[in-house]
Amino acid sequence: MADKTFRVDVVSPDHMLYSGDATFLRAQTTDGEVGILASHAPIFAELAAGGCVVVTEADGSKLAIAAQGGFLSVNGDDVKVLAESAQLAHEIDIAVEREALEASEEGTVEYLTARSRIRAVEAVN
Questions:
Q1: Which label site among 4, 71, 77, 88 has the fewest CB atoms less than 10 Å from its CB?
Q2: Greatest extent of the chain over all pairs of C-alpha atoms, in Å
Q3: Superfamily name with CATH number, domain 1-125
Q4: Is 6 exposed, middle or buried (0-12, 13-18, 19+ CB in 10 A)?
Q5: Are 29 and 35 in contact (CB under 8 A)?
Q6: What is the pLDDT of residues 52-102, one digit of tens each?
Q7: How far apart are CA 4 and CA 46, in angstroms?
Q8: Its family (predicted)?
Q9: Coil/strand/helix, residue 125
């Protein structure tokens, strides 16, 4: 029996990063990490700085997105991730991001962006 699916849209101000059906979504929010399944109770949460979003697609494959700032909205079987900026894990050069993390001061925008991107890559590897 296949898991029940729900619709996920991940957008940033300049483009749609992902739109598809998922069986599970995991995201770091300012209140902690949340996991979303189909028919989840409605929530609205702020995405944590330096976090990532991992989508388990209907076919079982995983997609990770480095999301810097924004919100997660769950309403019925419709989930929206509205990120201030975001990047798909497969587009990230992890060696460059590790160097950026080492070179930046903890808590800065550069540090949090690099940490977010590293988390996204590691989530699918």
A1: 4
A2: 48
A3: F0F1 ATP synthase delta/epsilon subunit, N-terminal (2.60.15.10)
A4: buried
A5: no
A6: 999 999 999 999 999 989 999 999 899 999 999 999 999 999 999 999 999
A7: 25
A8: Belongs to the ATPase epsilon chain family.
A9: coil
